[in-house]
Amino acid sequence: METEEKAGSLEKKALAGVELLEDRLIPFGFIKENGVYRYAEMILDGAFRAEIRIDGEMNVSGDAVDLETGEVYMPLHVPSLTGGFAGEVRSAYREVLQRIGEACGIPQPFDEPQANRIAAVLYRQYGDRPDHVFRTNPAAAVFRHPDNHKWYALFMETQAGNLRKDKEKGSGRNGQDTVMLITAKTEPARISDLMRLPSVYPGFHMNHKNWVSIVTGEGMDDAAILKVLEESRQLAAGKAAKSYARSEGPKSWLIPSNPSMYDVAKGFAEGGGELFWHQNADIRKGDVVCIYQGAPVSAVMFRCLVTEADVPADYIFNGRRHTKMIRLRLLHTYDRSAFPLQRMRALGVRGVRGPRGIPEALREALEAAAGE
Asked: Do the Cβ atoms of 319 and 301 come closer than 8 Å?
C-alpha cells in the first residue's frame, strides 16, 4: 500500500486553481477558533462528517470522521484506495471542498498574473469558470457562454517562436520563451485595428478572419482585454442571444443564489414578500426571475416578478461592486423536489453560474408548476 498522502495534498488537488478569500469563509459557515477556520458537514447520508480546517496562511487540511466509530477515516488520505467504499468517501469529501472553492474563492488557474486577473473578473462578472478540456495540455482552459457552451476565450501557453514571425521579430523575445495567450473572437472589421497593437496576433490555431490572440503581461491593460472578451462572449452567444432579443416584451430569467451566503426565504419573509437583488444582465421591470439555489439545495426554488429595475446602489457583494438593483416580488415557492438540477438538465439547462435566459421547455414547466 502506498504511504499516506501528505497533509493537505488531497485538499490542494481539489482546490487547484482557486484562491480562497478569507472574508468569504465565515459567511459560508466556517467558525474561527484560535486562528484556524473550521467547517463541518455531514456526507454520505450522515454516515460520515467532513471536517475542513484552514489556517492563517490559507492552507487547507481536513478529515472524514466515521460517525459510527467516532474515529477519523484513515483511508481518505491513502491515494492507492481509489475504488470501492474508500472512493465513495473521497468523492463526497472532495465535493465539499469544491463547493467551498466555488463559494469562497476566485479562479487563479494560470501562472501569469494578468491572465489570473482576467479570469477572476470573468468569474465575478459572469460567473464563468475556466474549463480545462485538453488532456495533453491541462494548463490550458476555455471559457464558455452558459447558454450554448460555445467557447468565447481560450487561455493557453505557447513558445514565442510559434507566433507570427513578422510581428514577433521586434518583440525582443527569444523564440523559446513561453508566453500566455488569450484567444478571443471578434468582428472581422475589427481585426486590422486590433492587429496594430504590439501584443495582438492572429488567432493561434484559430480562423484568422474571426479570432485574435493577445499576449498577456505585455502592455495591453486589463480593461482593453476585457472589452475584447465581452464582445467575444456576445458573439459566442449567437442565436441564443438573438432569440433573447427585447422585441418580444418581458423575459424569463434564471439567477443563481448561494444558500450558504444568503437565506432567500428569510429575505422574502422579512421584506413582506419582496426583496432587492443585485442587477445583472438585461433584466428589466416586468420580467420574471426564477432563483436557483446552489448546493446543497441544487434546485429552482422561487419564482418572482421584477417590479422595479435600475435602482441606484453602491455596494460590494461576493467580491464584486454593484451599482444597480432590482426589486423582486415573490410569486411562487417551488417544492425542492420539483426542479432539481437533474430535471433542469433534461430540460436544457446544464448549470446556473450567472443570470441566463430560460429555455422554452423549462420555462413552460416552471409556469405550469406555478399554476400560470
From this structure: no
Phi and psi, residue 179, nearest 5°: -125, 150
Cell of 223: 480593461
Cβ contact 94:161 at 8 Å: no
Q: Which CATH class is domain 113-242?
A: alpha beta
| C-alpha span between 333 and 348 (Å, rounded) | 21
What pLDDT was estimated at residue 246? 47
Three-state DSSP class for 322? strand
β-sheet bridge partners, residue 72 = 65
Sheet containing 356-357, strands listed edge to edge, beginning at the edge strand earlier in sequence: 274-278, 320-333, 299-317, 288-293, 252-257, 356-357
Cα torsion through 236, 242, 243, 247, rounded to 10: 150
- Residue 139's Cβ-count burial label (10 Å; 0-12, 13-18, 19+) is middle
Contact (CB, 8 A) for 13 and 56:
no
pLDDT at residue 133, rounded to an integer: 86
pLDDT at residue 4 greater than cutoff 50: no
Q: How far apart are CA 307 and CA 305, in angstroms?
A: 6
Regarding pTM above 0.70, the answer is no
CATH 3.90.1150.30 range(s) for the chain read: 113-242
Euclidean distance between the first and the last CA atom of the chain, given in angstroms as a whole number: 60
- Enumerate long-range contacts of 194-198, CB under 8 Å, 24 or more apart: 194/228, 198/167, 198/171
Class of domain 9-106: alpha beta
